Amino acid sequence: MRAAAAAFVLACSSVALAQPPAAGQQQLMSGARFVDTTVGQWRMTPKPELVRKPDLHDLETSRAGRGGGDFGLSFNCSVEASGKLTDCRPIYAIPAGTDGPALTRALSPFYRLSKESAATAREKAYRVTIDAARTTFGTSGMPRQCLPPFCIIEGALPPPPPPVPEDPTVRAALDQANKCFETAWEESRVKRFAAEKAVRDATDEPGRVAAQAAALDYVHSRQKVMACITDLEKAGATLPLSAHDRDAVGDRLKFMRFNYSGQTRYEISILVGLLDKNAGAAELSFSY
Questions:
Q1: Nearest of 213, 187, 216 to residue 202 by alpha carbon
Q2: Closest CA to 147 of 41, 76, 69
Q3: Mean pLDDT of the chain, nearest integer
């Protein structure tokens, strides 16, 4: 998880000051990125705007951050409409022995997203991952050591592009499956938000009936998404595939199944929410 969460590069310009930091001086660096909770993947765009983040003084007012050494920390939170972070959960902390949960509790109240970023998070079902590092500078004005998440970790390279089928027939089948999946996915995404809203807003019997209908529409839309996956599976089973084309079809099927399974929890939470709103909200409260 550490490698997946921390493929970030420390750009000299991002930490440069008007005067280079003195040797031994410490700074607390912060960054943020959205995580799409429907598929469990973090997004490079749009980038969350932090209008408030802690500094070294804020850190050292807490027992967890007082008088400590350098560390790297990542934690994941829900975003309130005001931009405040809630339900924050530690992902990792280094070096060994760093108290990630305590640092998460100490730092998370100081972060605030802009209203625009908070609205994006709520509209797109994003959580936000915060990356923080306390860094000591050396005599050259650069950090003494490179701590994740503000450096490249070995093995955390971007994934290679998906293979393109060599056979035109296989390529056409894959193109058709892509169009089918993308269309069905977008329809399902819209109906998921409609179902969530209907369940959340239901306060009387007509509202509960409308919520049931919206939830059923969403369940049916997921069946269309699965049909696209099944069609590609059938094509892969009937077409004569070279080893290369088998990899191409398999790669796309893996992507589709991953996205579909990521939304399964939302289907469950909506259906549970029809019976018990608190239980449905608990189902939706998770991080990657």
A1: 213
A2: 69
A3: 79
Tell me how far apart the alpha carbons of residues 107 and 17 are, in angstroms, rounded to a whole number. 23
Rounded to two decimals, what is the model's pTM?
0.49
Q: Which residues contact 23 (CB under 8 A, 6 or more apart)?
A: 137, 138, 139
- 154: DSSP letter: T
What are the pLDDT digits (tens) for 202-261? 888 998 899 899 988 998 999 999 999 999 999 999 989 998 888 889 988 988 888 888
For residue 215 the two structure tokens come to 């939830």
Question: Given CA atoms 267, 272, 274, 279 in this order, what sign does their dihedral have?
Answer: negative
Cα(96)–Cα(279) distance, integer angstroms: 36
Whole-number Å distance between alpha carbons of 235 and 224: 17
- What six digits make up the tokens of 71? 């560390």
For the chain, list the strands marked E by DSSP: 26-36, 41-43, 50-52, 71-79, 85-94, 112-113, 126-136
CA–CA distance, 255 with 270 (Å, rounded to integer): 24
